[in-house]
Design goal:
Layout (H helix, E strand, L loop, with lengths): L3 H62 L7 H23 L4 H18 L1 H16 L7 E4 L2 E8 L3 E5 L5 E5 H6 L2 E3 L6 E2 L2 E5 L5 H12 L12 E7 L4 E6 L1 E2 L4 H18 L3 E3 L6 E3 L3
Antiparallel strand pairs: 1-2, 1-5, 2-3, 3-4, 6-10, 7-9, 8-9, 11-12
Helix pairs in contact: 1-2, 6-7
Length: 288
């Protein structure tokens, strides 16, 4: 006969099998219930993003053919891309059986939390909209912001990208663009260079001025109008400060700057123009 202990053990095993069978049935029921929705949601995401890529390519073509400025095209492209992607995600969530009312509440709470933590980014977004509407500058304009000089290559939702004459890419937050003084050289199409030269008191200023004029007269990209300005800007303990202010197009800024310094240095050496060393009042010649 089967002992009581063995009977209890067998009964326990039967109960365990029954529980396992129950859980397995629940799992199968859940898979049967939710698998089609999950597959549908995945298909919507996959197909939706494929379609979005096609739509964005078409929109890009339309924007390139439109009369819209290069400044606003990237902004429109970014906004439309975000709207389309959010729409596909919401559609997939609905197919998966997610309660969109609850989903909306979660989004609202998330937006509030993100907004509080990203106040700076939201400020940049608002500033980007302000830049696009007030248009203090546009793509391909030469600007100076906080001492940073360069050409605007792109205005996005959060940042403005500026390429310096030295080929450095500056990613500047739009909040800086709306809170700083901006010098837009492309509005007038000319930039005034600030070439500073020192000469000793012993030298004749008219002679030095004539040499400077002759030295820069053969630089082709210096504009005839406005006329180059040359004058004494100040004095210090050992030298006279001579300001040379030629005007050029923004694209020629660095090329002409280097050419001016090179030509003036060469002309001073050829004419044995003396300069004062900063250590004292001893005199020397450029090139020695």
């Amino acid at each position: 006969m089967i002992s009581l202990q063995t009977a209890v053990k067998n009964l326990t095993e039967i109960e365990d099998v029954a529980k396992a069978q129950k859980y397995l049935n629940k799992a199968i029921d859940s898979i049967v219930t939710y698998l089609p929705s999950a597959i549908g949601a995945i298909l919507v995401l996959w197909i939706g993003f494929k379609v979005i890529n096609k739509i964005m390519t078409f929109i890009e073509t339309l924007l390139n053919k439109s009369s819209l400025s290069d400044t606003i095209r990237p902004f429109i492209r970014s906004v439309l891309g975000v709207i389309l992607k959010v729409s596909v995600i919401l559609a997939a969530a609905g197919i998966a059986g997610v309660d969109l009312t609850i989903f909306g509440s979660i989004i609202a709470a998330s937006v509030l939390a993100i907004g509080l933590s990203l106040q700076g980014s939201l400020g940049n977004l608002a500033s980007g909209l302000l830049v696009l509407t007030t248009k203090p500058f546009k793509v391909n304009d030469w600007i100076d912001v906080d001492g940073k000089f360069g050409k605007v290559t792109e205005i996005s939702i959060l940042n403005t990208i500026v390429l310096t004459p030295g080929k450095k890419t500056l990613i500047m937050p739009n909040s800086l663009m709306t809170s700083s003084v901006i010098t837009n050289y492309s509005e007038t199409g000319v930039v005034r260079l600030e070439i500073d030269i020192t000469m000793p008191y012993a030298e004749s200023y008219p002679k030095v001025k004539k040499i400077i004029i002759e030295a820069i007269s053969n630089i082709p990209n210096i504009l005839e109008s406005p006329k180059t300005e040359i004058g004494i800007e100040g004095y210090d303990s050992h030298s006279i400060q001579v300001a040379v202010r030629p005007y050029v197009k923004p694209d020629d800024f660095w090329e002409v700057t280097f050419a001016c310094y090179e030509n003036i240095k060469k002309a001073f050496s050829e004419n044995n123009i003396q300069v004062a060393y900063s250590e004292g009042v001893e005199l020397g010649s450029i090139g020695e």
